[in-house]
């Protein structure tokens, strides 16, 4: 799905206006990123002991106020989309708090709904000519 760019300091990146590119991540690194994202969105501990928690909380908080979002603008938000997509594909929570999860799940279901409707129409035409 592309490069993850979440291992940078949000404040530093905003000040510099640039992106520090990182190499492609392995499956384990992607899973750690997803786990960190899920933990940070559910963690209510202000001084959590997990090293990645505070950093991920800043990234998540950034996405709530960012005006550039994902289009062609903010690289921080773009970097968060990748682990959110991986998360959404497996997420079973109806009211998930992971950023973009509900929207991504809705988008993933759209082709399935259209396909089922088309199949039902085809079946209906064959059964009732």
From TrEMBL:
User: Which reaction does this enzyme catalyse, per its entry?
Assistant: L-lysyl-[protein] + acetyl-CoA = N(6)-acetyl-L-lysyl-[protein] + CoA + H(+)
* Record SUPFAM superfamilies: TAZ domain (SSF57933)
Give the subcellular location: Nucleus
For this UniProt entry, what is the primary localization, expressed as one broad class? nucleus
Q: Which key words are in the record?
A: Chromatin regulator, Metal-binding, Nucleus, Transcription, Transcription regulation, Transferase, Zinc, Zinc-finger
SMART domains reported in the protein's UniProt record: ZnF_TAZ
Lineage, top-rank taxon, reads: Eukaryota
List the TAZ-type zinc finger ranges. 23-104
Q: What is its EC number?
A: 2.3.1.48
InterPro entries xref list: Histone_AcTrfase_Rtt109/CBP, TAZ_dom_sf, Znf_TAZ
| Entry protein name | histone acetyltransferase
At the highest ranks, the source species' classification is: Eukaryota, Metazoa, Cnidaria, Anthozoa, Hexacorallia
């Amino acid at each position: 799905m592309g490069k993850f760019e979440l291992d940078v300091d949000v404040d530093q990146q905003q000040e510099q206006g640039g992106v520090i590119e990182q190499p492609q991540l392995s499956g384990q690194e992607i899973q750690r990123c997803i786990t960190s994202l899920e933990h940070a969105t559910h963690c209510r501990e202000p001084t959590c002991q997990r090293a990645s928690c505070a950093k991920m909380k800043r990234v998540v908080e950034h996405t709530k106020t960012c005006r550039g979002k994902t289009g062609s603008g903010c690289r921080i938000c773009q970097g968060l989309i990748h682990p959110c997509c991986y998360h959404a594909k497996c997420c079973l929570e109806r009211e998930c708090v992971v950023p973009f999860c509900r929207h991504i799940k809705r988008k993933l279901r759209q082709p399935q709904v259209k396909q089922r409707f088309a199949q039902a129409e085809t079946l209906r035409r064959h059964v009732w000519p």
